[in-house]
User: Which sequence fits this backbone?
């Protein structure tokens, strides 16, 4: 079995810093069956370590970058590389892998929890759009942003999600951004992924302890293969890290068996070890 962690990366400072942490966590767990596959513009890929699998792809969705991680997998550029992997995790740069990844082999398509459709109006709108497209919606809402499954499944979800996103952006948000936490342009890719997954995936596992787990947690890392940095200033915060507010901390005073300290430990280690971090910090 071969697996891949798949990320789209632009050459922005904050994204390169986040990637450095993901990469350092990937290296630290020493997975024997997993590659780190990065899509992005040529000038960005040139900054990255050579043991990454690099695929040149400049996403056309500059006005809505949340589609980048979907469109790269849906693109023809992905075919020749991703066919070699049985399973892939489509995720974002602001994530960490823990040693629990090395024993994480779910039987079915897996996602964490999302937080975009708690409003009944939003849920009704998603069901209505599914009917409009002639798609089956199973009533599963708030599906997380990272998706782990068989490569063909992930690719089909990305292809359908991309088409749905293009329609939603053009038809629903042409004149207005909408209003959060109601119907809102900023989470269009979450809406479209939900619709696509409900239609295409017969067996969906929602595993919030396994994917997109919170980087501020005091839990131990053993049960949480994949950590995501959400919008917070609590430790571990990607924003506080990017501002240099953790630079004074000592690795010796951290407990990397605890999630928030693990993220801190990996991020500080990345600053010390990675050339790309030194260039952009």
Assistant:
């Amino acid at each position: 079995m071969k697996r891949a962690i798949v990320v789209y990366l632009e050459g922005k400072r904050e994204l390169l810093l986040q990637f450095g942490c993901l990469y350092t966590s990937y290296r630290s767990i020493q997975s024997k069956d997993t590659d780190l596959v990065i899509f992005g513009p040529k000038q960005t890929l040139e900054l990255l370590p050579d043991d990454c699998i690099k695929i040149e792809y400049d996403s056309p969705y500059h006005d809505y970058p949340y589609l980048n991680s979907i469109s790269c997998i849906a693109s023809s550029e992905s075919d020749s590389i991703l066919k070699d992997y049985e399973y892939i995790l489509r995720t974002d740069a602001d994530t960490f892998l823990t040693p629990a990844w090395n024993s994480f082999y779910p039987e079915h398509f897996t996602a964490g929890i999302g937080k975009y459709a708690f409003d009944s109006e939003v849920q009704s709108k998603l069901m209505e759009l599914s009917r409009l497209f002639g798609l089956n919606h199973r009533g599963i809402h708030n599906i997380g942003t990272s998706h782990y499954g068989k490569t063909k499944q992930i690719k089909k979800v990305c292809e359908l999600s991309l088409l749905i996103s293009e329609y939603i952006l053009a038809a629903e948000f042409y004149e207005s951004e909408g209003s959060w936490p109601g119907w809102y342009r900023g989470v269009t890719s979450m809406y479209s992924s939900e619709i696509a997954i409900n239609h295409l995936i017969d067996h969906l596992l929602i595993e919030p302890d396994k994917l997109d787990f919170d980087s501020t947690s005091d839990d131990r890392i053993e049960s949480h293969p994949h950590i995501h940095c959400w919008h917070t200033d609590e430790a571990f915060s990607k924003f506080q890290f990017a501002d240099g507010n953790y630079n004074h901390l000592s690795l010796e005073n951290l407990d990397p068996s605890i999630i928030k300290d693990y993220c801190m430990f990996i991020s500080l280690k990345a600053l010390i070890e990675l050339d790309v971090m030194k260039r952009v910090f």
